Structures are given as structure tokens and as C-alpha cells.
Inverse folding.
């Protein structure tokens, strides 16, 4: 009886762990991609995860760029404001993407835009919106089909 | 016997409650294993024409309906990139299609939406088949 109860408790906690892990992290073992998603008051990480999957299948090169340069996506509102994105110098590999209410392709674009800011910072180059916007537009051209 | 009957009735009640809840935010056709979530914007929506367009496809174009059920799992009633000029689109790497908001509820508007849904469902099918 005690063993059965123990199995029940362990199963419950394992399930809870899986749910929490799935909610707070993006994991793609085959592509060695592991990204932490910091949740905001909107309590939804689904758009971010969908956007990462869009990149994975529709633009694998950009997906690798994101996986290699970003380890945390924070969905809280930051300098990009509501429905925008932001990269703050000093917060290496950490980008802000607050686009829950926006469309999926817009989220994809913001992730790419902020990833290029991370690359610029990593390479010691000055922040250039032009380069990030070009990268974002190129990705969106590959992803969106009208 | 009475216990079994009670359980069956309870199951039917729970089934219908779930069915109605799911139907409030999605298109559900159990017999064809078709589930498509319909997401709308808070300020305005014309979800009924999307449902009517799907039903029209089911009646008139079975092949397109099967493609839709297999390759689309979410329909958003908003323009791509949140830009009115962008219009409708399909996002590669997903099973989501975006339909531009249209307040028109006439039969011709429903027919037009059905054509749009069919077009983007085919885009999705082509994309996923290209990866195979």
C-alpha cells in the first residue's frame, strides 16, 4: 500500500515537473537548442515557443543563430514597450520579447532583431538598428507567405 | 445495471459540456478528427464567417476540407504583422493561418473566406510536404 502511494506521489511530482519544465524552457535536443523563457504577467509563453518552431522549420540558419546567441527570452515589458522587443547591454544572451498580443510573424521578427543586437554586443560593435532590421526583414520574407 | 446507466449518462453530460466549451473557441468535427482553434482579436471579430467558410468547404470541397484539417490547427482573425496593409497570410513552419478582418457577413464574403482558407491550407500542406 505504501509503495503504491509512493509511486502515485512520484508520478504526480514528475508530471508537475514536466509541465513546469515545458512552460519555462524551450528544449530542442536534436538541434542542441536550450532557451529559458522568463514568464511575464501575461502568463503565456506559447507565442515565443511557436515562433521558435517557425524558425526551426522555415529558416534553420536563423534558428541556429538564435540558439547559439540567446539563452534567455524574457517576456516582460522592457525598453521595447508593450508589444516590442529589447536588448540591454550587459545582459549578455538575454533578450526581451513582449509580443504576446501581436501576431506570430511579428514575434519571429522581434526575436531575430534582438538576436542581432546580442551579436553586435558580443562582437564589440556599436548597436545598429539598420543591420537588425535588414536581418528581420530577410527572415520574414522567408517565413511569411501571402 | 442502474450504476452503469448512471455512469453512461454522466459521461454523456461531461462529453457535451466539453464539446460546447471547445466549440466556443475552436472548430470541432469529431467524425473527421478535425480540430482548428479560432483566435480572434478582442476589439472586433467575425468568427462566425470563418466557421461558415469551413462548413462550406466541408460541404463543397472534401479534398480541401481534409487538407485544412490535416495542415491547419489555428486560424487567427488578424492581419499579418498586425499591419492592415499586409492582409492574410500563412506562416511557414507552423500550422497557423492569418485572415484579414472583414466585417462583411454576406454569402459572397463567406465564399471568399473559404477560398482564402483553402489557399493557405494548401500553402501549409506544400510547406510540410517539402520537408519530407
Amino acid at each position: 500500500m505504501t509503495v503504491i502511494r509512493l509511486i502515485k506521489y512520484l508520478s504526480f511530482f514528475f508530471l508537475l515537473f514536466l509541465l513546469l519544465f515545458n512552460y519555462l524552457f524551450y528544449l530542442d535536443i536534436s538541434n542542441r537548442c536550450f532557451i529559458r523563457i522568463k514568464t511575464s504577467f501575461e502568463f503565456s509563453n506559447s507565442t515565443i515557443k511557436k515562433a521558435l518552431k517557425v524558425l526551426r522549420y522555415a529558416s534553420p540558419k536563423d534558428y541556429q543563430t538564435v540558439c547559439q546567441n540567446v539563452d534567455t527570452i524574457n517576456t516582460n515589458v522592457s525598453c521595447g514597450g508593450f508589444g516590442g522587443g529589447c536588448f540591454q547591454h550587459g545582459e549578455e544572451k538575454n533578450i526581451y520579447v513582449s509580443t504576446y498580443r501581436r501576431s506570430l510573424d511579428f514575434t519571429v521578427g522581434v526575436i531575430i532583431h534582438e538576436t542581432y543586437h546580442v551579436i553586435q554586443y558580443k562582437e564589440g560593435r556599436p548597436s545598429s538598428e539598420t543591420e537588425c532590421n535588414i536581418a528581420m526583414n530577410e527572415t520574414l520574407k522567408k517565413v511569411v507567405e501571402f | 445495471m442502474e450504476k452503469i446507466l448512471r455512469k453512461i449518462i454522466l459521461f454523456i453530460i461531461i462529453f457535451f459540456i466539453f464539446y460546447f466549451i471547445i466549440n466556443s473557441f475552436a472548430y470541432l468535427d469529431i467524425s473527421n478528427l478535425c480540430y482548428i482553434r479560432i483566435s480572434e482579436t478582442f476589439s472586433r471579430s467575425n468568427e462566425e464567417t470563418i466557421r461558415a467558410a469551413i462548413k462550406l468547404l466541408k460541404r463543397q470541397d472534401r479534398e480541401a476540407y481534409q487538407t485544412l484539417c490535416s495542415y491547419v490547427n489555428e486560424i487567427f482573425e488578424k492581419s499579418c504583422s498586425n499591419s492592415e496593409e499586409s492582409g492574410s497570410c500563412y506562416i511557414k513552419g507552423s500550422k497557423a493561418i492569418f485572415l484579414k478582418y472583414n466585417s462583411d457577413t454576406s454569402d459572397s464574403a463567406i465564399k471568399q473566406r473559404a477560398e482564402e482558407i483553402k489557399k493557405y491550407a494548401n500553402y501549409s500542406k506544400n510547406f510540410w510536404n517539402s520537408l519530407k
